[in-house]
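retry 2 of 3: previous attempt timed out while embedding acetyl coenzyme *A. Reduced batch size to 1 and resubmitted. Inputs unchanged:
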Amino acid sequence: MPGSRITALGRYQPSRVLTNDDLAGMVDTSDEWIRRRTGIATRRIAAETESVADMAAAAAADALASAGLDPSDIGLVTVATCSAVDRCPSTAAQVAGRLGIPAAVAYDLNNGCAGFCTALATADHAVRAGAARHALVNGAEKMSDVTDWTDRSSCVLLGDGAGAAVVSAAEPEGIGPVVWGSDPTRADAVRLLGDWHPRFAQKGQTVFRWVTAELPAIAREACRRAGLTPSDLAGVVTHQANLRIIENVVRRLDLPDHVVVAQDVVDSGNTSAASVPLALAKLVERGELPAGGPVLLLAFGGGMSWAGQVVTCP
Ligand code: ACO
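retry 2 succeeded.
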């Protein structure tokens, strides 16, 4: 089977910036508490009329333009999201329609914050199997729609945005074997339950403890399956949930100084399934990751689920 690789990236974030001081005017919190416990300084919030599909389409258009492909080249469109309101047509079908992609299979994928890495693996598998030559993989969230703006323990964390990757058949391959799974015994640690107006809720410390205990071994396994050790990496892009989690995991991986670690959570907050492609796209845009360098993507979230793989930087 041929391999696949990420050939281009795209991103979109709404223009409205919500600061910690803004939040301190809404709930009983402070800039000092939020920065100390989460590292977050700002997050972007979509306009009321701006949908998950709007943001996904903007990021996807950016990635498609950067790949230099024609819309008719794309055979698969997938959007990882847990906050899209529309069930049908799917967000992916709406993205395909807006970009003029004429005949792609288009489907949404919900695996919480691990959604983008899960979607990337399924696109890689589809391309390897010959089911599509070029795929558009998106992570897009309007978390502000599902935020309980009276709950200070969660509303300070979340943000909106979208990131996208074009995945194309390629030799040598540039997407390593996925490491993925879930732990149903902790399924209630992150919740978006209920009717048409679900509200995000989580057991923050349960998630924190689970992630810092389990993620380093999952990261090492993803590297091992790619034939690498963590010190061979050029970069690490984890789900951007909390800077303390990122620093904790990175410390346990004992990474050398040259490894670039994504910290977009500081500017963007937790954008769930959008966080990994957003952070990756920004690092590539800024030239902080070398083209061809191996980058570990690793995400975790509701389920409790996880997914990660080593990719070659476009
Ligand atoms: N401002 C001020 N005080 C607050 C705030 C706030 N925004 N939020 C909570 N507190 C208070 C609590 O009420 C509590 O007060 P008390 O001691 O009087 O009861 C105190 O701060 C400590 O609360 P904890 O919940 O113990 O704070 P903690 O240090 O655990 O930080 C946090 C909370 C940031 C949520 C942390 O647990 C965390 O990041 N967990 C991981 C979450 C995560 O990664 N989720 C990812 C999966 S889901 C997704 O990505 C969409």
